[in-house]
Amino acid sequence: MKIAQRALIVFLATIFSLGLGIATISAQTLSAEEILTRVDANQVYSAIYYEGRMEIVSGARVKVKTMKAWAEGEDKAFIEFTNPEDRGTKMLRLKDELWMYFPSERDTVKISGAMLRQGIMGSDFSYQDAMSSEELSELYTASISGTEIREGRDCHILELRSGASGVHYPRRKLWVDKEHFTILRGELYAKSGTLLKVLRVLGTLSLQGRRFPSVVEYADQLKKNSKTLLTMDSIVINPSIDPGRFSLQAFSR
Fold it and tell me: What integer pLDDT is reported at residue 130 of this predicted model?
């Protein structure tokens, strides 16, 4: 599972670094493909653990969810919610399959079909967002459309397009920090050109030579006055994780 602009996804969970042996190349000379490759490089890790807080805003109403999350590789992720209202609710991803466990009903539900478009725990992050793990350079063709200051940082503006089937957002527009190659803003579009979601990275941390998005705002543009703010704390890159953490057998305990 990848974090930050993939979410959370988990969400976002998804993620950025300060240079991986090619820092001597001037950012001004990089092609769109090279910039996107460096963005992807910042998102690669073998495992991650973090504690998170989601503030889900809908009009004047704000709901707060807290969680612990573990992820390993591209196809294993486990989230356990810890706020009193949802304590013990869990989410497990194994490759292309996703399950939720609800302790009050002692019921495990497989998330599939139309359910994947719903927001996780009522947030602006959908289950589809949580399932996305491919590197951007594998899915999209990139071009540079300009430069702009975002969050006080000089950014490249990348236009991404994909013709691959099954891609949830066939078009993306990214603002990439020229120095750190972090995504500071992203706009996610449908094939028709309709703007679906906007993400903003509002805070980052430097961890093990990586610039990691620690505060991410995600806003579903098809909802009125809706946004979700994800804050990640206690982040550990490449921790040792018990393999049993990602088993269905232990999921409902």
Answer: 75
Q: Is 192 helix (H, G, I), strand (E, B) or coil?
A: coil
Q: What gap in Å lies between CA 47 and CA 31, rounded to an integer?
A: 29
Helix (H) or strand (E) segment spanning residue 39: helix 32-42
As beta bridge partners, residue 98 has 93, 111
What is the secondary structure of 126-190 as a DSSP string?
A: BHHHHH--S-HHHH-EEEEEEEEEETTEEEEEEEEE---TT-S-SEEEEEEETTT--EEEEEEE-
In a 13 Å sphere around the CA of 198, the CA atoms on its Cβ side amount to 12
Residue 186, pLDDT score: 96
Helix (H, G, I), strand (E, B) or coil at 74: coil
Q: Classify 83 as helix, strand or coil.
A: coil
Tokens 């988990």 label which residue? 10
Mean pLDDT by 10 residues, the chain (253 residues): 35 29 49 93 84 95 96 90 95 91 90 88 88 81 95 94 89 95 94 95 86 92 95 92 88 75
